[in-house]
Every structure is written in structure tokens, then in C-alpha cells.
Amino acid sequence: MSELRCYGCGAKIQSEDPKRPGYLPAKAKQGKEQVLCQRCFKLLHYHTKIASPLTQDDFLKVISKIGDKDALVVYILDLFDFNASQIPGLMRHIGYNDVLVLANKRDLLPASLKEHRLMMWVRRQLKAEGLKPVDVIITSGKKNLNFDEIYEKIDAYRHGRDVYVVGTTNVGKSTFINGLLKHYVQVTTQITTSEFPGTTLDLIKIPFDETSSLYDTPGIMNNRQMTSRVDDKVLKLIMPQSEVKAMTYQLSDKQSLYIEGLARMDYIEGEKGSFTCFFSKRLKIHRTKLENADGLYNRHKTLAITLPEIQTIDQMKAYEFTFDGTKQDIVIAGLGFMSIKTKGKVVIRVPEGIDVIVREPLV
């Protein structure tokens, strides 16, 4: 008799320890072939945030199981938070299996952005990371964008093999799989989805046919994203749910932009330039003179979203960048990005441990 697993997160069902994955009281599982663990039940019905009990090493151990298989790997990336959603050294973990890349959350980017241009941008980013996928498809799990093409490509590239879906937390893996199940497999149960990181805890197996299956894998936690540091209330605010509207500021030097209390951009010196912000529309952006920027944060923290460990702006880490007049993006991992066209010096302030990078412009 096969072991009973939660169809929501993949954890092995057990009734001994409520603190361990897969807990379900013995009475609740009697006579059932499909069950939800207590954790998934609370996520699904009460929208309760429950911290993942697994570490990053635990997630990598699960992913590394793919390296022993002959399979197709569907690698899902978040277009809005592209760089932070990449898995470092992915090919080492999956044993150099074929990789089909799905660039997800197209619905969050401006509708005016041409798909071909976006596709070329994604391919250049992947090439820089040394990844050569069998194909790249732009998609939106929320909008079922290009799902017919995805299903056809998966069927073509897998050659009857199993398929493993991988990605960091909150790239939309479970939403994507549920979309495929709803449109093509017609199953009666779905895996658990949530905006909270770490929802899936183990491999979730969904049979394709008698000889092969689709597997959802746990998301790899990236602790250098803003989304890994904030509480659940702030998490809902910083994760956009619809198209991000560009907010453009023409700044002279000695001016600053605040993204709530989470980050600050100081234009230290240079020519007048264009700064276009792409953040969740639920976050407020404040412009002020650089000479007033410290006081604005320190006096009005109650008006901003702040992290408990940051009491003054001096406790944030500063990253300095110099621009030569060509258009580039500054990305704050897990928060958003700014498209900057200026010739001058910029300082970005974020909590210690949050990644800030400069890249080729996306928009």
C-alpha cells in the first residue's frame, strides 16, 4: 500500500508531531485516499501564514533528486523579479537534463512591451548565466497566456519522460501546474497555492499517463529578496497582482526617492536624468531633497512600511553606482526596479542582505 501524501504540498501524512510537515490528526485521514495536511488546510481555507519548516539545504536536496533521472525540467522564472528568481548552479542540481524555460508573470509588465523584444532579453540573461534551454516561452499562469503552446512543447520535448517543474518561491509554479491540470488533465483536486513563500514542501506527483508523471517541486528560498524579510502584511503590498504602472521622475542631483520605508535612491551628483520606477502600485514613492532625506525617514517612519531591525536610515546598507548616460536598470531583489537614464552617481539604500544589481534595461 502506497504512503499517503498531502495533495496540496506533497508532504508525507503523519499524525505524531503537529510541528512536522504533513501533520493530520488520525481521525481526519481514516478511509480517505486524498487528504490535505493541517497546514495546507489552513492556507487554503483561512489564508493563514505558516512558516515553512524546511531549510534551503532541504529544498536543494529535493531538487537534486532530479539529477538521477532522465527527464524534462520546466524551469519557471519571474519576469518581474527575474534575476532574484534564478537558481544559481541549476544545472549541477538537475544533472544536465533538458530544460524548457517559462518566463512567467508577463501580466505584471507593461502591455506595450513587445513579446519578441522580451523574449530576446530573457535569452540574453540566460546566456549570461550559462544556461542553454531547449526553448523559452513567455507566459502568465494567471492569464493562461500561451498555455496551448506550453503544453505542446512539453509533450514534444519530454519524449515520454517525466517532467519536473522547478523555480524559486513565488514564481508561480503551483498556479501554473493547476492551470495545466484544469485545462488538460481535468483532475478534481489541486495543489495548494499561496502568496506566502515555501508552500510546497516535497515532490508532488501528478500522473500524465501509465508510464510518466508531472512533478511539482518545492521552491528554492532566496533569503536575499525583500519578500523573504517582510511580514505577511507587507508581503501582500510589495507583490504586484496586476500590471505595474511606470512612474517617471525627472531628477536633478541632490534629490532622493523613497520606496516607502523599504528602500531609498539618492541621486548624488550628475546631469538631470530620467528615473522610471516599476514597483507595486500599492507602494507609495516619495520625492524629497537629499538634505531632507534622512530626517524624512527618521521622523516619519510611522507613515512608511519599515522593517523592525531598521530604526534609522543609517542602519541600511548603501550601494553606489555610476552611470554613463546609457539606459540601465537598478534592481532591488524582491521589491522592483528602476529604469535609469542619466550621467551621474546614484546610491541605493536597502536593509543589509538584500541584493541590488545593475542590468540591461527590461522595458
TrEMBL record:
Q: Which positions are tagged coiled coil? A: none
Domain (CP-type G): residue spans on this chain: 60-223
Determine the domain of life of the protein's source. Answer: Bacteria
**Pfam family name, one:** MMR_HSR1
One MF term from GO for this chain? GTP binding
Matching NCBIfam families: GTPase_YqeH
Output this protein's name: Ribosome biogenesis GTPase YqeH
Species of origin reads Intestinibaculum porci
